[in-house]
Amino acid sequence: MHRVFIIFLGMLLLFIGQAAHAQDNDYIVSQSYYADKTNQLSLDEVKAQVFKPYEGLLTGGFSKGAYWIKLGIRAHAQDLVLKIRPAYTNELTLYDPASTGPPKVSGSRFQLDDADVEAASLNFLLPPSVEDRDVFLRVKSVSSYLVYVEAMPLSAFKRTERTENLIYAGYVMLTLILTVWLFITWLMNRERVIGMFAVQQFFAFLHTFIAVGLARVFLDRYISGALINEVFRLVLVTYPLIGLVANLLLLREYGLKKGFRSVFHLLMGASLLVIGLFLTGHEVTALNINAQLLLVMMGFFWISAIFGTDKRRASAASNAVQLNALRLFYSFNLTVWLIAVLPLLGLISTGPIALHSLFVYNMMSSLMFFFLLQYRARWLLKHEVARATTLKAEATQERQRREEQSMLMAMLSHEIKTPLSVLKLVVDEKVAGSDLEGHANRAVSNIDFIVNRCLQLGKLDAEAIRLVPSKFYLANFLATLVVYHKAQERVKIVCQELLLHADEDILRVVLSNLLDNALKYSPSESQIELTGEAAEVAGKSGVRITVSSDLGPLGAPDPDQVFKKYYRNMSASKISGSGLGLFLVQQLVTVLGGTVVYSHINRQVRFTVWMPT
Questions:
Q1: CATH code for residues 468-612
Q2: CATH 1.20.1070 domain extents, the chain
Q3: pTM value?
C-alpha cells in the first residue's frame, strides 16, 4: 500500500504542475459576473447591468437563478479553446461577437459530440480576432455554482486534457481499487462496519467517476448526459445517509453514548428528508440542504469521537483501532471537508484548489480510512482465530472431562454393584424369614437404583447412547414390566395390540422410572393405570403411553421443575431417590424422537409419553 500512496502523491504533484502550466497559456485579461436571480434576462438586458469583478474561481453557492460571466479576451491569431470546469456544470451558453450564427451551448446534460472539442472538460472554440473583445457566458446549474474558466490554444488544451485525464483516471481507478478491496475484505468476514464503508467507498467512486467527466466520455454512446446528471445528484443526496449509518456502526463499538446515538438518528431523518425533497423535484433546495448537512455531519463525527465515547461500554472490536487514531482521522476529515464544502456553499473562495478539493479529500480520506479498516480487519481476524483456538481447547478439555467422568461412573458402577450382589446374597442368607428381610432388600435395591441412575446419566452426558431398535409387541412389553416391579395387584394395563419398532432397553428405562415413581408416591392401596394406544402427532404415526396414579400424601410435583436435574419435592426427603429419574425420562424420550408431558388433573398425576413407531 505504500506504493499506492506514492502513486497518489505523484499524481497530485503532476496535476499541480500542469495547472500552473495552464495558467501561463491563459488569454483572459478580465473576469466579472452578474447573478440573474430571475433566470430570465436576455443578453441585451444583462449588458446593461453592473458586473462584479472576480479572479480565478467563481463561487456562487446554490441558486435557482443563473450566472452571467463577462470575459475580456485579448487579441489572438489562432483558434482558442475556452475551457470551463467543473465538468458537472449543467448548461453553458456562449455569446461571442466574433462567431457567426446562434449562441453555442454545452454542458454536462448534452452529449459529448455536441461539444466543439470532444473532451472530458466542457469547452467552446473561440475564432481568431485582431482586437480584444468581451464574450458572455451564461451558466445554469442545479448543483453549486463553482466555475473556473481558462482560454488557451487548441494544442495546449489537448496537452493539458491528456494529462488531466491521466490523473483523473488514476483517481478513479484508485477509488475503484479501494472499493473492491473493502468489498473483498467484507466477503471474507461479513463484518457490518466494513460492509457499510465498502458501500460508502463505492459511492465515492461513482462521485469521482462522474464529477471529473470520465462517465460522460466512456458512457456517452449508451447513456444520455441528462441521465448521468440525475445519477450524479442522486449519489450526492444519498451519500450522507450511508456515511451516517457507517460511522454510527463504527462509533458504537467505542461505546457511543445514548444522546449521541439519538443525534445520529435525527441526522438520518434529515438525510431522508433531503432525499424526499430531491425525488419530489426540489433539486436545488435538496442539494443546498445536503451540502450543509454534510458539513454538520463531519463536525458531529469529530465531536462524537472526542466527547461521545465511553470506554466502559466499548466492545472488544474497539481494541482493533485505538480511539486516539480514530480521533486524529476525524480531525483530518473535518479540516479537508471544510476546505471542500465551504466554497460549494459560496461562503469562502479558495481559488482553483476548490475544484480538486473534493477529489483530494476522497483520495486522502479513503486511503487513511482504508488503512484503518484493513488494520482493524486484520486485528479482528487474529482475535477470532485466537478465540476459536481457545474455544477449541475448552471443547477438548470438556470432552476429556466428560470421558473421564464416564469412565469414573463405569468404574464406580462396577466396583459398587459387585459388592452389592455379594451383600444381597449374605442378607438373603442371614435375615431370610425375619422382620429385617424386607428392610435389607429395600436398602440394597435403593443403592442399586441410584447407581443405575448415575450410570445412565453418565451415558447421556457423554452422548454415548446409541439406538438399537427392534420389533416387539407393546402389550407383552408392559406386562413384563409390571411383573418385574412385582406390581400386578396395583397396576391395571389397558393396551391395544400394537407392534413397535424402537429401542426396547431405552423404553424400559423410561417406563420403569415412571412406574417406580407412581408406586412410590401414590397411596399404597391405590390403583395405577398403564395405557397404550396408537396416536398421530403432526402427521406422524406413533404410540401414546400413559402412567396415571392418584395424588399421594406428599402432594404434586412443581410442573415447572419436574423434569429438571436433581429436582425433588420438598416433602419427599424421607423417601430414597436421586432427583435424576424424571430428568433421565425426558432426555431419553428425546433420544427416541418423542415427547413426555406431565399433568395434574382432579387429584391424579399423569405422565404421557408419545414416541414415533
A1: 3.30.565.10
A2: 161-392
A3: 0.58
Closest alpha carbon to 202 in 184, 219, 188, 221? 184
CATH of 161-392 among 1.20.1070, 3.50.4, 3.40.50, 1.10.10: 1.20.1070
Alpha-carbon distances, residue 354 vs 56, 62, 175, 395, 421 (angstroms): 11, 15, 19, 59, 97
pLDDT in tens, 101-158: 899 999 888 888 888 898 888 999 999 998 999 999 999 988 778 888 999 999 899 9
Dist. CA 37–CA 517, nearest whole Å: 94
Q: How far is CA 139 from the centre of its chain?
A: 43
Concatenate the DSSP letters of all residues of 343-409 into one string.
Answer: TTTTS---TTHHHHHHHHHHHHHHHHHHHHHHHHHHHHHHHHHHHHHHHHHHHHHHHHHHHHHHHHH
CB 313 within 8 A of CB 255: yes
* Dihedral of the alpha carbons of 594, 600, 603, 608, in degrees to the nearest 10: -10
Cβ neighbours of residue 169 under 8 Å, at least 6 residues apart? 214
Q: What is the CA radius of gyration of the chain?
A: 43
Give CA 116 to chain center in angstroms.
49
Which CATH entry fits the domain spanning 26-159: 3.10.290.10, 2.40.110.10, 2.60.40.2380, 3.40.710.10?
Answer: 2.60.40.2380
In 10 A of CB 583, how many CB atoms? 20
CA 97, 98, 100, 103 torsion-angle sign:
negative
Helix-strand-coil split of the chain, %, nearest 5: 55, 20, 25
pLDDT per residue over 88-97, tens digit each? 888 999 999 9
* Interatomic CA distance for residues 217 and 123, integer angstroms: 14
Beta carbons within 8 Å of 70's beta carbon, 6+ residues apart: 30, 31, 32, 33, 34, 51, 134, 135, 136, 137
- Which residues lie closer than 8 Å to 284 by C-beta, 6 or more apart? 62, 63, 64, 142
Dihedral sign for Cα 190, 196, 197, 203, please: positive
